[in-house]
Amino acid sequence: MQDSLRAHSVVAEPRLPSEALKSRLQNLLTFSPDDGRIWMDDRRMLLLGAATFGNIRAELINSLGPGKARRVLTRIGYEAGISDARVLQRWSLKRDESVPLGPHLHALQGVTRPEMVAVRRDQKSGRFLEGEWIWRHSIEDDVQIDHFGIGSEAACWMEIGHATGFVSTLAGELTLFKEVSCRSTGSQHCRVIGRVMELWDDVEEDLACLGLAPPGKPALRKDAVRPSEADAPVVARRDKDGKPLIVGNSPALKSALHQLRSVAGTSASVLLSGESGVGKELFATSLHLTSARASKPFVAVNCAAIPDTLLEAELFGVERGAFTGAHKSREGRFERADGGTLFLDEVGTLNQVAQAKLLRVLQEGELERVGGSRTIKVDVRIVAATNLPLRQAIERGEFREDLFYRLNVFPIHLPPLRQRREDISQLMTHFLREFAGRYGKDVTGFTNRAQRTLLNYRFPGNIRELRNLIERAVILSEGGLIDTAHLIVEGEELERPLFVVDGHGKLEDEKPPRSPVGSFDIDEIADEFVRRRQRGEMQALKNFEEDLFNAVASKAIEQSGGNISAAARLLGIRRHQLDYRTREH
Prior knowledge:
Blueprint: H1 2-7, E1 9-12, H2 19-26, E2 29-32, E3 37-40, E4 43-45, H3 50-64, H4 66-89, H5 95-98, H6 101-108, E5 113-122, E6 128-136, H7 139-148, H8 157-171, E7 175-181, E8 190-196, H9 204-210, E9 235-238, E10 244-247, H10 251-264, E11 270-273, H11 280-289, E12 298-302, H12 308-316, H13 333-336, E13 341-345, H14 352-364, E14 366-367, E15 376-377, E16 381-386, H15 390-395, H16 401-407, E17 410-413, H17 424-439, E18 443-446, H18 448-455, H19 462-476, E19 480-482, H20 484-487, E20 498-501, E21 507-510, H21 522-534, H22 544-559, H23 564-571, H24 575-584
Helix pairs in contact: 2-6, 3-4, 3-7, 4-8, 17-19, 21-22, 22-23, 23-24
């Protein structure tokens, strides 16, 4: 098999990533000191000193022994490589474009500086077969030599795991990396070989280090890449049609979901609290679908949207002749939810009469319709929601204390989106797919600038606001990537300072983008135009119109992030007009 593969292979010229892709990758790294977080794409990062990392690594080796420590660190690197590869998979790049970005990403993270030496591909299919890299300035070598000196074993365990996880994920098959020479053994630099599984012998120990086979036993999954469960995007719940209800992977969301799972198997009343737009009805639906009542009705009612005069009839039903216009008996929401779940949104807005009747249903499991005297038994689980502090409403005499304790059997607080920043990118992608399909737009993703903009936005309207922003952006987009000009068009402002890495590796302040609408200062452009003409940078007066148009159009395009459609909206003209004038001049 090995000889056959190599016989039909060809040594390909090592391909380096384009400067545009390297810049795009570099811009994934952002620093938000006011928020106390560092981000790479949607993942929170940690800036850790090399000495601290070395102490942790040495403690693992001394406590567990070199063999077990190697397995732990290799597995950590493997998971990190899978996570990094998933970022690039969202870019929809070709495989020969994404794989060369791995070394640049490794260097950007301060781990090592890889240099590709050679790569061999299948002559017909172009499939990657094997490659060779040189690793310089490996941080693992630095700390290994510092703590243990020169030894006889290669020591770049995390880096080997990262390379294996990264390339295997992008290639779609397990591609194992081994270190054939290492600076920790006295070599000048590290030399690494990566090969598909068919070209390797004696891989049991390496696979055991990756967690793909038990130690000392043959691997059972040589052709598989095990997904990283810890970092994989999570669809926490799905509806009956299989559509995702709750999307995210943040610690705050996981905490709320853990509480939801704990109470789902019971019939206890649940009180969901949180700001408007955090998804309380989705949580209530998810709770119902994971309970024993999933086959029964789920009935939702917004208490704030029903007038007080109709609220009792809506909740508890009405008997014929109870009031003018009641020509027939009608069941209320409680009866419709019998055996299932009733979701009472904005429960804090219920009037005193409705509160008293609700308390009776919770206590006795029975109700009377408006205008009726017959007692009706109901079996309903109550899930209530509020964005108001009910304890303060109790102190003001606006909400019954006994009802509060009946509803507050199992409270779950849903965090605002600003506390779930790890979920923002996943939600962006989720909503993008939803609206691109609905409106038939060929939108492929977001620019780094757009992603940073939303990661740095406070979202006073929470998930509902994010959903609206993405829907609007898809509508405004002409296809391709969504940029800030599609998102920030109604005066949304960013509050936290944000820093990005410039081309020289230094942090620079990225000013929060302002809304393009209403902020296009024609006077400022005109003044600059006059100054440039006075300096002799503009042509003669006969070309005044062309020069002025170029100045205004250039400013509009720059302010719109290169988006022609958004620039045209700033200028108050149609896209094709700006496109034509730009080509003409």
